[in-house]
Predict the 3D structure of the following.
Amino acid sequence: MFNPVIVVAVIVQMLIAKASRIAGAIAGYALTTGILIWGLSVYSEGSGIALFTIPLSEPVFLTICSIWYVFDTKEFIAAKKQLSEPVRSEAGGK
């Protein structure tokens, strides 16, 4: 089963990240959680999920979601670190 809403959600998340890295990171968590919930409901109905026409077992799907959460966490940490760094002047103190 393929859900085109996921593609749209990924695009929207990328646009949000361009406007604000921290908001994009939070949107990434929301997107990953939404995909996880959707996928679990698909598997509970007895259906399956395919990634680029390759069928995924439920454990593989859960592993992919877990890896995606790791990437979301790295992006969130990087965005938070960027927020806490002082802004440097390009004028060299002039």
